Amino acid sequence: MAEILNITPKKTKRQEAEEVIQFLNEKTGRRYRPTQVNLDFVLARFKEGYTLEECRAVIALKCREWMQDDKMCKYLRPATLFNREKFSQYSGCLEDED
Q: What is this structure's pTM?
């Protein structure tokens, strides 16, 4: 008897980047579009070796820290969160959360 395998096709990096933007929208209540500019910030982090899970974790961390801060809330956007230098700093804080 042949066993049926449920194989899900692997997501492309672009699809994962779109998921990151969608997750940011869900967490912030905003409507960032998956434009090439927004996706490029996330794709650049993927090229550096960061994962979908790490990107989501940074979003969740910064939302917890900044959502209730009127001054910082405006920085919950792709250009700030996924900026090369800033993302490295933000992801470094993830270890402190454990």
A: 0.86
